[in-house]
């Protein structure tokens, strides 16, 4: 901790420098910075919890995490969702030890305290005989604040945070490309695939936020397999945009033309029978290129650790597990309007490309793991990284793509991600992440 115990190895104001476009690599490896992240980034931001379709009926629940904190998301009888800490108020045992299902109550397996689906403490063994005056109302599970946007449920511990809608801000129109491109929106398919990667969470979150650049090198093998006429290292037929949220650290990049291989990999949109491109264009109020709505080659991060890759129908959370490890929780995200056969086709395609054993997924994880290994070196942790790509490019000139710069190959969204992250990290009392000041804080 910064104020108790060892200090971080770098000053908090030197972690990221927007002017010079440099990143201190200590941010991926320093344990004190990680502790500070749990407090100032994760406990103050809106965090993705589940898709609405993961828990459709009353009593349906999903045990997940908000950063390192285990939580349970439960559908209530009135249709709402509660998210509470998966921690018994007696001695801290998990009150739910399964991954998900349907429950009428959660009973702690240590001494038997029982909580209803709203997290209220409802039963205590030997209460009459052994507790003089236990006010059970005071001892319910700790509740998070919950909100949702077009099928995605988020929660935060920050009761003063802006609404989820304000938090997402201008990133909403880019999320809409994925979430609202056809009637009925999206649904989650298949299970949640979970795996561990020994790397810092920011490598994954930043890459999905901003990095369209790595594809032509890192993914060249599967690209050539999918599209044999692809030229190694030649990205010249790709053009696209990169969006940096005006505040909040969210970002996305997408190709507008070319990138033929992406269409051979992705199965979304045009592959859904009856998909109406003109309607999608109107719904999302965004442009399409030729026959293709632009969103389908898009990957995006909602700050801090939720990402979607529309081209591969995958959504995932990068749960941090210390400075050098993440648990990836990924699920298939498809248009509800697709037929069962098409959904199955998408599910298989996602498993084969971007999933634990997916050929493309391996390319990305390999880089993050290797970078993290290099950072075991003392000198390596003191040698700045370059994040200058596309700096100074004009923003917001194309009304079709608000707040974008005119090249997918840039690090504009990454700079937005780190600028917001650094603001949170230096915000001692949490005032920056409160609703009022947040609304005025252009980044
Ligand atoms: Fe849960 Fe004791 S820890 S009942
Ligand atoms: Fe990749």
UniProtKB/TrEMBL annotation:
Any GO molecular function: iron ion binding
Metal-binding found in the keyword field: yes
InterPro entries: ARHD_Rieske_2Fe_2S, RHO_NdoB-like_C, Rieske_2Fe-2S, Rieske_2Fe-2S_sf, Ring_hydroxy_dOase_asu_C_dom, Rng_hydr_dOase-A
PROSITE patterns per the UniProt record, alphabetical: RIESKE (PS51296), RING_HYDROXYL_ALPHA (PS00570)
UniProt cross-references to Gene3D superfamilies, sorted A to Z: Naphthalene 1,2-dioxygenase Alpha Subunit, Chain A, domain 1, Rieske [2Fe-2S] iron-sulphur domain
Superkingdom of the organism of origin: Bacteria
Name of the protein in its database record: Rieske 2Fe-2S domain-containing protein
Species for this entry: Parvibaculum sedimenti
């Amino acid at each position: 901790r910064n104020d108790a115990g060892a200090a971080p190895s770098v000053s908090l104001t030197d972690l990221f420098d927007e002017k010079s476009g440099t990143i201190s690599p200590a941010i991926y490896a320093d344990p004190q910075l990680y502790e500070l992240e749990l407090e100032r980034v994760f406990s103050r931001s809106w965090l993705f919890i589940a898709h609405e379709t993961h828990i459709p009926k009353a009593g349906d629940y999903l045990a997940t995490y908000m950063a390192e904190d285990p939580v349970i998301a439960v559908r209530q009888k009135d249709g709402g969702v509660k998210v509470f800490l998966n921690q018994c108020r007696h001695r801290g045992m998990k009150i739910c030890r399964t991954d998900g299902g349907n429950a009428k109550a959660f009973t702690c397996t240590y001494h038997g305290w029982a909580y209803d689906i709203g997290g209220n403490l409802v039963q205590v063994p030997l209460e009459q005989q052994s507790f003089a005056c236990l006010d059970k109302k005071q001892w319910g599970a700790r509740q998070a604040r919950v909100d949702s946007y077009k099928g995605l449920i988020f929660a935060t511990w920050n009761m003063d945070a802006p609404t989820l809608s304000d938090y997402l801000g201008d990133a909403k129109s880019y999320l809409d490309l994925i979430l609202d491109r056809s009637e009925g929106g999206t649904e989650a398919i298949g299970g949640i695939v979970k795996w561990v990667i020994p790397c810092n969470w920011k490598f994954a979150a930043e890459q999905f936020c901003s990095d369209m650049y790595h594809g032509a090198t890192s993914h060249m093998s599967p690209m050539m397999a999918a599209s044999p006429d692809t030229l190694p290292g030649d990205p010249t037929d790709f053009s696209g945009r990169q969006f940096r949220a005006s505040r909040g650290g969210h970002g996305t990049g997408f190709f507008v033309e070319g990138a033929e291989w992406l269409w051979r990999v992705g199965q979304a949109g045009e592959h859904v029978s009856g998909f109406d491109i003109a309607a999608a264009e109107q719904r999302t109020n965004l442009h399409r290129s030729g026959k293709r709505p632009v969103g389908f080659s898009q990957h995006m991060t909602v700050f801090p650790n939720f990402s979607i890759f529309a081209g591969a129908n995958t959504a995932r959370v990068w749960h941090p597990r210390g400075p050098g490890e993440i648990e990836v929780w990924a699920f298939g995200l498809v248009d509800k309007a697709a037929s069962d056969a098409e959904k199955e086709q998408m599910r298989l395609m996602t498993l084969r490309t971007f999933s634990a054993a997916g050929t493309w997924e391996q390319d990305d994880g390999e880089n993050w793991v290797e970078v993290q290994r290099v950072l075991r070196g003392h000198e390596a942790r003191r040698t700045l990284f370059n994040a200058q790509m596309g700096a100074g490019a004009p923003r917001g000139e194309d009304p079709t793509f608000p707040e974008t710069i005119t090249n997918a190959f840039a690090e504009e969204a990454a700079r937005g991600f780190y600028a917001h992250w650094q603001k949170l990290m230096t915000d001692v009392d949490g005032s920056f992440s409160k609703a009022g000041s947040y609304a005025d804080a252009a980044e």
